[in-house]
Amino acid sequence: MQAPAKRVSVVHAEKTAIVSFAQRDGNEPRNSWLDSMFIVVANVVGVGVLGLAHAFAMLGWLWGILALAITLGGSLYSGLLMTRMKGRVPTALVYADLGHAAYGNLGHAFITLFGYTYMTGICLSYQLTASLFLKELTNGVCFVSCATMVAAFVLPLAQYRNFTEMTSMAVVGAVSIVVPVLLIIVEVAWHGRFQAVETEWVPSTTDFQAATVACMDVIFAMAGHVFFVEIMSEMTDPSSFRHSLYCATSFLSWVYFTIAIVGYYCVGTSVLNPITQNLASVLVRRWCSAFVLSHIIVAYVMAVMVLARNMESVLCLAPHEDSAHATLSQRLSWLALTSSIVCLGFLVSNVLPFVNDLLGFVGAMSGVTTTFVFPFLLAPVLLYDELSKRHRIALYAVALGSSAIAVLGVVCAVQRMSNSYETRRPFSC
């Protein structure tokens, strides 16, 4: 009887002289494109969607619509490029493997650095935002207590070891974001009927720093490409991932534009981030908090799983096993890794208790690079014979422009974070 295959990345395979390194967790991959669509939605849609109306208030109608449309279109095209590159490098199991195939060890190192930064950053932001929404749901329980409850709830769920085991959870995560969006739209639209609000096509009072951070919030709302290669690696037919992207992007476009336009139109320049703070009904606000919390928990668990799996391949230098085939020692090491990630999230969430600027920093630092820089640098190399010279030059130009935006975003986000830090003491309620 043939032993179950194990998941081994390209670089680890080279180190251990394994010839056939395109192996996966446990049995053969069995996710369909529909399963992957729910996983993409659960990963990509997060608390960022609740900040889009605020981003529109900072950018105005013109720049807000342009920023969101360009981000959605660019994110879709970037994902399609990654799907084609995965077809060219079928042995790639993680994002960094594409970098290794294109630029060798240097490409692998850069993508690993920014990929880990992104995954760590979103784990921290998920811990923070989940704690804040739990505080809202529990009518003002101490933030430290809420953060403790979130960590205690996430850790057992984080013992899942691949996306295939989490498809049902992904469906719950995807659906749980639809309900609060609908509640928010109805609530703000109803109250917007009875009060005049001010909106602008081009903002007159927003400074450059605030506008830049708002752009980073929009970009962060479409980040998540760092997971795409791993999602495709667990699919029966990775090439069908393009169907997942088309459906997921269509859904995201409807959700994002609806909540951004309705929220800004009905609330105006006073719209907050997250928009749930503008809801007049306490009951509606708590229901929204409950569903958003459910969605964030699912996304948090998936992010912890991916980060722990990548850390395991580096620290343990051993093939990854799925839950069904893991030994006791492997389960204990996995528990140690996931506990470390969740504990780090707990500590940082109590030191940096402000959502908007942290999301802007993560979006600028790694969201831009993993979504709009690396795919556009890798494609001209891995898809060289499929792309014209002009096409390759255009991709390099997009990567260069995105890099400049990322640097600018990081500078502005750090400045705003330093200002926000003075407004609240660490480990306070």
TrEMBL record:
<dbReference type="Pfam" id="PF01490">
    <property type="entry name" value="Aa_trans"/>
</dbReference>
<feature type="transmembrane region" description="Helical">
    <location>
        <begin position="170"/>
        <end position="190"/>
    </location>
</feature>
<dbReference type="InterPro" id="IPR013057">
    <property type="entry name" value="AA_transpt_TM"/>
</dbReference>
<feature type="transmembrane region" description="Helical">
    <location>
        <begin position="395"/>
        <end position="417"/>
    </location>
</feature>
<feature type="transmembrane region" description="Helical">
    <location>
        <begin position="92"/>
        <end position="117"/>
    </location>
</feature>
<feature type="transmembrane region" description="Helical">
    <location>
        <begin position="210"/>
        <end position="232"/>
    </location>
</feature>
<feature type="transmembrane region" description="Helical">
    <location>
        <begin position="61"/>
        <end position="80"/>
    </location>
</feature>
<feature type="transmembrane region" description="Helical">
    <location>
        <begin position="284"/>
        <end position="308"/>
    </location>
</feature>
<keyword id="KW-0472">Membrane</keyword>
<protein>
    <recommendedName>
        <fullName>Amino acid transporter transmembrane domain-containing protein</fullName>
    </recommendedName>
</protein>
<feature type="transmembrane region" description="Helical">
    <location>
        <begin position="33"/>
        <end position="55"/>
    </location>
</feature>
<dbReference type="GO" id="GO:0016020">
    <property type="term" value="C:membrane"/>
</dbReference>
<keyword id="KW-0812">Transmembrane</keyword>
<feature type="transmembrane region" description="Helical">
    <location>
        <begin position="332"/>
        <end position="352"/>
    </location>
</feature>
<dbReference type="GO" id="GO:0015179">
    <property type="term" value="F:L-amino acid transmembrane transporter activity"/>
</dbReference>
<feature type="transmembrane region" description="Helical">
    <location>
        <begin position="137"/>
        <end position="158"/>
    </location>
</feature>
<keyword id="KW-1133">Transmembrane helix</keyword>
<feature type="transmembrane region" description="Helical">
    <location>
        <begin position="244"/>
        <end position="264"/>
    </location>
</feature>
<feature type="domain" description="Amino acid transporter transmembrane">
    <location>
        <begin position="31"/>
        <end position="401"/>
    </location>
</feature>
<feature type="transmembrane region" description="Helical">
    <location>
        <begin position="358"/>
        <end position="383"/>
    </location>
</feature>
